[in-house]
Amino acid sequence: MTAHLLPPGIEVFERGWLSANNIFHFGNEDVSLVDSGYCPHQNLTLDLVRNAMQKHELLKLNKLVNTHLHSDHCGGNAALVEAFNCEVLIPAAEELAVKNWDNTLLSYDNLGQECPRFSHHGLLIPGEEILLGRSFWKILAAPGHDPHSLMLYQADHRILISTDALWEEGFGVIVPELWGEAGFEEVAQTLDLLEALPVDLVIPGHGAPFTDVTKSLATAHSRLDYLASDPDRNARHGAKVSLQYRLLEWRSRDIQQVNEWIVNTPTLLNAAKLLNMTMTAFVLWLPKALVKSGAAKLDGEVLVALA
Q: Do 164 and 90 sit in the same domain of this protein?
């Protein structure tokens, strides 16, 4: 367990794969939450925040900070604002997309996901610092998984909120490459940045906090080399993860409905093109690939999540 390594004023709500971890910061002058999870789990997010506020006798949630705007990190924004009247801070590069609520730029349509509309009240600018609870955290750019993703670093405690730029066993899907845009080099740059940071504890976007940063960085570099050496690998991996994520929410789905979702999800259309597969062949391949990986099973004509 790593809870004892957290300084006073920080709690980590470890979630799962549908909802990103939430990091709760509290102090005399500020109470903040980093990331809000996926919208189907918003009631649990609200309960986690309410319980933490009650436990620490806190009266107000000042702000909600989003490391990036994938739906598993900001799907609870609207519910939290309604419940607590808190401010929302987003990466500066996403300002127009949120202001105009451009579902394409925000990736929800492209990834076949949902996120209730929310407004923002402030911007997170790389290189600047932000007060979270009792400490100031430096905002760091972390492109790769998402072009506009950010990390948060607390130098005094040597803690990194790495979001999906670094997990204990790798990193998040390199989504831009699925759209035919650059991502491999950006992941490499982010990993190089992390290697230069003195870090004792990493709080990732998914999974438990961890301390063996050297090992995780080595795993991430190896993973990147594997994916970048054959871009088809990233396309296959990204397609499987996209379907697995949706299936985790569904839990089970008639295979015909699964196939309809696949052909109506732009990112998967792009993945099929990258793999030089017709959509007919791609639709036949993808559910079977998920079954082969052990993440799902076919029960007659129903695809069932195993995770």
A: yes
